[in-house]
Amino acid sequence: MGTTDFSTREYSYDEVSDDFDLEHFSLADEDLKYKIPLMKAAKEVSNIDISLFGSPWLAPSWMRDFANGRMTLKGESNGKYYDTWAKYYVEFVEAYNTQNVDLWGLSVQNEPNAGYGRLANLPNFTMAYTPQLQRDFIKFNLGPALRSNNITKDLKLIIMDDQRDFASIWADAIFGDEEANSYSDGIGVQWYSDSAYSTAALGSIHKKHPSKFIIGTEAGFGFNKEIIGCWDRAEQYAYDIISVSRANIRSEYFYKIRGLSILLGCRMPCHHRLRMHIVRW
After folding, report:
1. Which position has the higher pLDDT, 162 or 277?
2. Mean pLDDT across the chain, nearest whole number?
3. What's the structural domain count of the chain?
4. Active site residue: 76, 94, 218, 226, which one?
5. Is 23 a catalytic residue?
6. Considering the domain boundaries, does residue 280 fall inside one?
7. Known catalytic residue: 218?
């Protein structure tokens, strides 16, 4: 949904200040020239269904503020900026629908824990949420906005979308709230801290919240130059998949690969970040 931390520029779909009705919302060249054609091409050549989900990094510049070491939406929780930000998700899904690209789900926010501290002020980075703030955004703004629209009402909503070290805290805060839980379908977990934290947190989440899926949302290499013929990266991917799968068997819950979604970083047309769906069966 707009700019990412791999983008060559910061952009959004509505940079007209105070456009709370989003009358100037429109997709960017990155969507129309790169992302959407790639998604369509992948669907055409695939012999399995491909499930795609959207994930925001940053709200439009006029909707957010950087203060006290964090990047957040302006105003109070459940205020007009939060209402408009929720509408923005709906507009995004509708815009992709008009391009004949249907989404399976949405992540509330990419890496909300990383929106705090010095990293939050990096170009194109991310918005900060505490579990409690995201809980309230879901139950007061985003959840009702999605459910009230025919195109978005059946989308899967993914909470957190960050590292596994805080996953249990996020799951308990949001799935433990009756209203927020009613709008939330699963929790997204990225892989960047997997070597430091065991898979025990995933088992704990499943035991407490067995109706919710756990989805691997992001795993990426490429921070250094490409090394042709280096298998270390493939081995790390394989090790991570195997370790999670083994933990799943011990915890008696099962996963199947639902497909791949690719978010173009637009550093160059062929440079991408892979976001892999592994959804509980």
Report:
1. 162
2. 84
3. 1
4. 218
5. no
6. no
7. yes
